[in-house]
Amino acid sequence: MAKINGNEIKPGNVIEHDGGVWRAMKTNAVKPGKGGAFNQVELRNLINGSKLNHRFRASETVEKVRLEQREFQFLYDTGDAYAFMDQENFEQIELQKDFIGDQGQFLQDGMTVEVEFYEETPIGVSVPDQVILTIDETEPVVKGQTAANSFKPAVCDNGIRVMVPPFCGTGERIVVQTSDTTYLKRAD
Fold first, then answer.
1. Who's near 148: CB < 8 A, 6+ residues apart?
2. 3-class DSSP state for residue 79?
3. What predicted TM-score, i.e. pTM, was given to this entire model?
């Protein structure tokens, strides 16, 4: 592991602090008129999910942690967990639904996801940035309404609600951004 100064911590960095493994969510470099500069950092514990705000002085050093990232294939939903298979050694793991959170709604059969490990303990799952979904229900197209920059609600095959342009209809395949569930374009 590499040591970094407290003022070098950036959002997304994973550090070891107070005996735990933390991810920096937000940082704010502060240079007060009196006293030394510091970095105000909002941290989230990767093991238990707790949050912490901490002030790191420029002179402090912390251990920057490197996480192991491996590709897994989504297999199936067990009811309270999701089953995944390692792409290299074909071992299977189950991760609880509350561990994966809202990203679980985007999982599709055979989808490849990236699982982050810290000392063989899974601490995070990343689904692809974009997924292709099929619109199950939406309002019908109304002639003359397509000229305005308006959107209408649609429900996709996995239950996600997305705002789509008026020209999208039931049964169409669309590309959706997973970070904020926004419509991007029609699927090819």
1. none
2. coil
3. 0.68
